[in-house]
Every structure is written in structure tokens, then in C-alpha cells.
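Support request from a user on the community tier.

User writes: "When I paste my C-alpha cells into the form, the page sometimes reloads and wipes my input. The last time it worked, I copied everything first. Here is what I submitted, just in case something in the input itself triggers the reload:"
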């Protein structure tokens, strides 16, 4: 059965997808748009991959290169999760009116507490440090003996992270029994 153009394009898309995923972790590999065209961008990405991993820099995807791409890709997707440090510094204080990724994460953690403890408030995760968020922070601060400012500093953040880790480990133990 002959190798069709559709199959060839599908394999190129797969290669480009793997290389693109690797580029998120290894900045020496340029990102690619998986389009199924083995053009100059793909050739360059393959060359950079080959250079980075000690292979002959041909820009062609021979079996050795393909196997290495697959191996590196699989090692990343099967690896332990990387910790994501979102809290900017020990002097940072999140407060009413702020918005952004850190606030989404703060609200998600506060909501996790609210969903697992009957007396803790539940809130919408919207990315805006609103009054509802401030009140949930005050609740947490009261429960852990911190001043009830409604703002979250590194101490409050660390306590909240610890609380969420405890919740998650308890839930995981329950699922494994």
C-alpha cells in the first residue's frame, strides 16, 4: 500500500507538534505551528533539535532523529510536575482591586477551602480581587490567627497553599483506599 500525501502530512504535523511541545521546555528549540508542511521553519527546528541533542545537523528527520524527538517528548510528558511559583516575592501583598493570574489562583485555592470545609466561604473564580475575595481572605486569616486585613501577603499565601496541599493529600488518600 503506498504512502499517501495525507499520511505524510499527518506525520509532519505529529513531528511539528512534538517539537513545538519540546520548545516550551527547551528554549533552544524554536516553536512551530503544526501545519503539515516540512518547510524552512520545520527544517530549522529539526536542525536546532539535532544540535541540542548531539545529532548530525541535517534538518532531515531520519529514524535516529525521529526516535530522539519521540523520546524527549515522552520524557517531558511523563515527568514529575514542575512546581509553579506564582507569588512574586515575600514583600508582595495582593489586595482589593487587583486582577490577573495570581488572583485566579488565589480564588481557586480559597474556593477549594470553601468546598471542603462547611463553614468556609465559597466564591466565584473571576480573577478580580473583589469584596467576596477579601472576605474569604479575612475568614482564612481569622482561622489561622493572622491580622484580618483582607489582603494576602506571603504568610497568608503560604498558609493557604499548605491548607490546599492538606486537602489534596487527604482527597488522594481517600481515592487510593
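"...and here is what came back when it finally went through:"
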Amino acid at each position: 500500500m503506498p504512502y499517501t500525501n495525507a499520511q505524510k502530512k499527518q506525520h509532519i504535523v505529529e513531528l511539528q507538534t512534538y517539537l513545538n511541545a519540546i520548545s516550551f521546555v527547551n528554549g533552544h528549540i524554536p516553536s512551530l505551528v503544526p501545519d503539515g508542511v516540512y518547510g524552512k521553519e520545520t527544517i530549522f527546528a529539526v536542525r536546532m533539535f539535532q544540535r541540542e541533542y548531539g545529532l548530525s545537523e541535517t534538518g532531515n528527520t531520519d529514524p535516529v532523529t525521529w526516535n530522539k524527538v519521540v523520546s524527549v517528548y515522552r520524557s517531558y510528558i511523563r515527568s514529575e510536575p514542575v512546581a509553579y511559583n506564582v507569588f512574586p516575592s515575600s514583600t508582595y501583598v495582593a489586595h482589593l482591586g487587583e486582577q490577573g493570574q495570581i488572583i485566579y489562583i488565589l480564588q481557586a485555592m480559597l474556593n477549594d477551602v470553601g468546598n471542603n470545609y462547611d463553614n468556609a466561604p465559597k466564591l466565584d473564580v473571576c480573577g478580580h480581587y473583589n469584596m467576596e475575595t477579601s472576605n474569604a481572605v479575612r475568614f482564612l486569616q481569622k482561622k489561622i490567627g493572622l491580622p484580618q486585613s483582607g489582603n494576602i501577603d506571603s504568610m497568608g499565601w503560604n498558609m493557604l497553599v499548605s491548607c490546599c496541599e492538606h486537602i489534596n493529600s487527604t482527597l488522594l488518600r481517600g481515592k487510593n483506599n
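Agent notes: The reload is a front-end session timeout and is unrelated to the input. Residues 154-176 form the longest helix (23 residues). Residues 101-176 form a domain with the Muramoyl-pentapeptide Carboxypeptidase; domain 1 fold (CATH 1.10.101). Escalated to web team.
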